[in-house]
């Protein structure tokens, strides 16, 4: 991985972000060739799925949405990672990954924080950094990136940078129905930035807190789902 990162930098594709100020974890800047490559992929996708099709329309929704959107979608309460800290060296990691990496064949998806904490103790799992077996309890951390709207202290309201781009599509479904000549089945496609406040370690541009998404939601008649499923 280090070789790839160094090569991508040397050839002007991708630079570590904020480098002269010590960098920022998991943040990367695209250089000249990186930008051209990224834009080419983006434009080919847009041509394939929007411009060349009769059943797809485009959308570019805002990154900041009313906080109620994320409450209604379940992200405010349910969009979480279970994290655990080493009390000795303060190494922080995802508890599910820690357990699955250390215990062969175990699957922990859907387990509560209490059950995850118990598994870490039961299997005598040690810290990958320092080797000690002294962890905090597992805690839930929300992945939504919070920010504040307003300039007067004490009168600011919490907003979230979008954690996915699909919500903007669902919010505009009725606008699209009312203004575009569409009939079921049809899709709404979108590209843009999304943000997740997650623990990621050394996975280069494959896993970052700020990233580009390209996706469409395809709306169908429920009774025709098999036909549409086959088609795609
Ligand atoms: Zn440790």
What does this structure look like?
This protein has helices at residues 2-10, 32-51, 67-72, 75-78, 95-102, 113-122, 166-171, 173-179, 225-231, and strands spanning 14-16, 28-30, 56-59, 64-65, 80-85, 92-94, 139-142, 145-149, 157-161, 186-195, 210-219. The chain is an alpha+beta fold. The protein folds into 2 domains: 2-75 and 144-231, Bira Bifunctional Protein, Domain 2 (BirA Bifunctional Protein, domain 2, 2-Layer Sandwich); 80-142, Herpes Virus-1 (2-Layer Sandwich). It has a 3-stranded mixed beta sheet with strand order 3-10-11. A hairpin with a 7-residue loop joins strand 8 (145-149) and strand 9. The longest helix is centred in the N-terminal third of the chain and has 20 residues, at 32-51. The protein is globular and about 60 Å long.
